[in-house]
Amino acid sequence: MRKIKKWIHSLRGRIIIYNLIMVIVVALLGSIVTYKTALDRSKKVIKQSMSQRIEGVSDKFQVAYEEMMNIVLNCTGRKSMNLGSLDFTQQPSQRKQALMNNELMSDYCAISGYGTYISKLMMADKEGHFIQTGSNVGSTDDFDKLMETSWFSQELAKETGDYKVSVVENPFFGGKGEDMIPIIRPLDNTGLMREEGWVFLGISAKLFEDELARVDSGNTMIAVTGMGAVIAKVETEEIKEKELALITDMLLKRTENSGVIEEKTSSGQWFISYAKSPETGILTYEMMPIKEALNERAIIIRLAGVLFFVCLLLGLLLSVLSSRRIRKPIDLLTAQVKKIGGGDFSRNPQLETDDEIGEIGKGINHMSGKIEQLLKKNVEDEREKKNLEIKMLQAQINPHFLYNTLDSIRWIAVIQKNASIVKMVTALSSLLKNMAKGFNEKVTLREELNFLQDYIIIEKMRYMEMFDVEIHVEEESLYNARIVKLTLQPLVENAIFSGIEPMGENGIISIHVKALENTLCISVRDNGVGIPEEKIEKILKGKEKSKNDTMSGIGLPNVDQRIKLVYGEEYGLSIESKVGEYTEIQVRIPIEY
User: Fold this and answer.
1) Rg of the chain's alpha carbons, rounded to an integer?
2) Where are the transmembrane segments (predicted)?
3) Is residue 512 helix, strand or coil?
4) Half-sphere exposure of 111 (CA within 13 A, CB side)
5) Is 304 exposed, middle or buried (CB count within 10 Å of its CB: 0-12, 13-18, 19+)?
């Protein structure tokens, strides 16, 4: 459990987990989109197929109707077919004419291609004279049966250009129990000497049933009149009559003449494709259960699932590979940091790749190099410090011996009343006492200046008042600032020996103390012979030999080095000089109290 928890919190574990989450989300979205797209595509194909199929059936119904109407109109408009001049019972010639007219009507039926579906084609006048043909057996009382129907006058009153068909029961002897679509048109008497009459054509509903069955779509298909009466239907699903009536009524009320819709009923959800004829009012529609239409959905779901798991496996593989790719340089970084912690600061070029981790590697290599340089420098500084302390110890003389000797000389001078010797010995005694206390301790600026005054007294007596010293401190508080002991004496000593003495005449040494922000600046300036520019750098680097008769034996390079050791590389001495005019040495140290 701990290993799992550790792995989860590791960088590699988090990369793999984050990548897997991203892959799962992308794969899930991809699978959903794929499923939705495939499902929508499947629906679109099904709807297009149903629409084309139902419109094809509707067109065939329209063609059949137009063919039947043409037969009726041909009969109503043919002037040779004049029933009023015929007496079917008396004259042979009249019977012959009737037979010829009958044959002509039979030919109309035959050449139409729908002869077997024409139950009855009858031409009659108002006197009851008629001729007829059709698939139903004729009878002498067919005229009377037709006239007795409730729908005859309604069909006769309809307009030819807007003939909304009806479905009725066949009233004739040969077609009892069958449904048919009647078409009745009056005879055209314009400009003709014809009796008033009409032409009747009865289309068997079997025409529509056979056409629907011929489609063989495997779905429920229904044809109804504009009033909702069923002409024909092919049922593959058990649908309640009430549901069919509601669906029929809903489709008849739609303003569009064709389309495919999705409808939900008590028996399920359906795709319904429909087409309406504006001329006849016939509505033809097909119903397909959505659950059966989309039985490919299971296949789509399986494909989407396969796609999801393939993406998941690829994501897992890519996550592992990418985590290894990232983990390797991180392991190298970790190993390098451990080496640095163990004291090995060697550079590792393998860390310096071209990516972001490589930038970190470059930083670690740079850091290790800097640490190594710093350690070497610290070792070197400590070595220099020890050497300097050894030199100072070597230069020391037993202070008690010197103090006792100087004290004896001072008393002899007092007895002899020699004030100059007393002053010089007193200054030297004070100077040696301060030197004996050590060189590297920090003292206040006031104490450093007092120590410097003792040294100046000795040197002025030595050089017969050849120079004067001016001291100016800008702020009273600076007297309490702390400074490394014996910093100013070597600077004044340099001004005397290298500036004033070679000049051979009186000079002035100016000491100026001021504060610049957090830095204490002390300048020691003389108006002596100056220093050539090429020698200045050599003096600070210790390449110029110092005189052996200096008081402390501490030259300018040692002062500069001591300051840098105590305060840092940014502090120390700087020299500015102009040959024949002046030399100015500046000390920069941080202000401390």
Assistant:
1) 64
2) 15-35, 299-321
3) strand
4) 8
5) buried
Domain extent at residue 508? 438-590
In a domain, 28, yes or no: no
Beta bridge partners of 575: 585
The answer to the question of residue 19 being in a domain is: no
> What are the percentages of helix, strand and coil residues in the chain, rounded to 5?
55, 20, 25
Structural domain ending residue among the three candidates 325, 355, 389: 389
For 409-448, strand residue ranges (E) read 442-444
Is 300 contained in some domain? no
Burial (Cβ within 10 Å: 0-12, 13-18, ≥19) of residue 448: buried
- CATH code assigned at 223: 3.30.450.220
Which of 373, 389, 405 lies at the terminal end of a domain, its last residue?
389
**pTM of the predicted model, to two decimals?**
0.50
- The C-alpha atoms of residue 205 and residue 119 are separated, in whole angstroms, by 10
**Residue 550 φ then ψ, to 5°:** -75, 160
- The pLDDT tens digits of the residues spanning 451-504 come to 898 888 888 887 778 899 999 999 999 999 999 988 999 999 999 988 999 988
Do residues 89 and 202 share a domain? yes
Q: Which residues of 450-467 are buried (b: 16+ CB within 10 A; e: fewer)?
A: ebbebbbbbbbeeeeebb
Q: What is the pLDDT of residue 200?
A: 94
> Quick one: pLDDT at residue 206?
92
What six digits make up the tokens of 135?
A: 């698939």
Residue 262 exposed, middle or buried by CB count within 10 Å (0-12, 13-18, 19+): exposed
Gap between the Cα atoms of 310 and 252, Å rounded: 50
Of 206, 202, 167, nearest in space to 185 by CA: 202
- Number of domains comprising the chain: 3
Question: Could you tell me the two tokens for 86?
Answer: 């015929």
Whole-angstrom CA distances from 269 to 37, 171, 260, 360 are 20, 40, 13, 64
Same domain, 445 and 541: yes
Q: Are 473 and 500 in contact (CB under 8 A)?
A: no
Residue 164's identity, in one-letter code, is K
Tell me the three state secondary structure of residue 239.
coil
pLDDT value of position 548: 47
